[in-house]
Amino acid sequence: MRDIEYALADYRLTTAEIIYHLPDHPLLLQTYLWQEFDLPPSFPRLKEFLDFWLHSIEGKLHSVHLAHGGPLLPNKIITPLFSSVLH
Questions:
Q1: pLDDT in the model for residue 25
Q2: Selection from 17, 14, 45, 46 nearest residue 29 by Cα
C-alpha cells in the first residue's frame, strides 16, 4: 500500500521497541526498533512480525514497548494571493 491508502484505511505510524536476549549471551539484552504503518488497536502487522520472530529468530523476547501516532492527514495547501506570467 502507499501512504495515502494507509491514511484512508485509518492506519497509524507504529513504532515498537523490541528488547530481546542475545542468543549467545542470554544475560545480555539488545534492542530492535520496528516501524511500520499498522492498524490500532489490534496491530495485525506487529502481531505478524512478532509471530515471525518467535518462530524464526533465536533471540528470546524480553519486552515490547509500543507507540503509535495520530491519523495521517494531508498537508495544508496554501494558495498564492497573486499570480502572473512572464514571457
A1: 94
A2: 17
Regarding pTM above 0.90, the answer is no
Amino acid letter for position 17:
E
Q: Are 71 and 42 in contact (CB under 8 A)?
A: no
> In degrees rounded to 5, what are phi and psi of residue 78?
-110, 120
Prior bond of 41 cis (ω within 30°): yes
Say what the pLDDT of residue 74 is: 64
At residue 14, what is the residue type? T
Tell me whether strands 29-38 and 61-68 are parallel, antiparallel or unpaired. Answer: unpaired
DSSP code string of 41-83 = TT-HHHHHHHHHHHHH--SPEEEEEEEE-----PPPP---S--
pLDDT bin (cut points 50, 70, 90) of residue 71 is confident
